[in-house]
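so im writing up the methods section and need the Putative glutamyl-tRNA synthetase, mitochondrial-like protein record in one place, dumping it here so i stop losing it
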Amino acid sequence: AVSPGFLHLGGLRSALYNYIFAKKYGGRFVMRIEDTDQSRLVPGAETSLEDLLEWAGIPPDESPRRGGPLGPYRQSERLELYRLAADTLIERGAAYHCFCSPQRLQLLKKEALRSGETPRYDNRCRHLTPGRVEEKLAQGQPHVIRFRLDQGATSFEDLVYGGTCHEVGSVEGDPVVLKADGFPTYHLANVVDDHHMRISHVLRGTEWLGATSKHLLL
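--- predicted struct ---
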């Protein structure tokens, strides 16, 4: 449940597909609360989500309420795992610290829209020297961590759409994976949790198809 609000029909349908798939193949149906965007949390939504799944006859096998061997099941309680993953990406040269201010990012967006282009980050901080990065960190400058997107296409086999390919590196700027408040974005948290929770199949709305390439790269 991403930035959980109250469950709508589309979300219930996705949950139903996950439940049926898990039961058919002897798997576990896991309810994970993806509460990384604290500004969008809706009071009472988490309790309502699980109540509605139980009402619909598709109760989760593991959840914050039920517990389980792979918890905790709220991402806000797993922040150390995401920090470790982000640090590992930096050590491997796959991610970097970005010190661009919200004002600069907003200006980039306005200029792109004015030119009729799709807004994207220009990867400016990707080119900072290690010494400059250390200097800014020592000064306590606010920063996020961004993932270096490879140029070219990443292909994968989707069980509904078949062979799928998205050239994310050539059309998007490097995405944020860890925010200034220490919370991860959906992309990093999802990949880390899918790994630790041994998720074998991801069944979700079509709007996330384009993000799958980023998740595979991560």
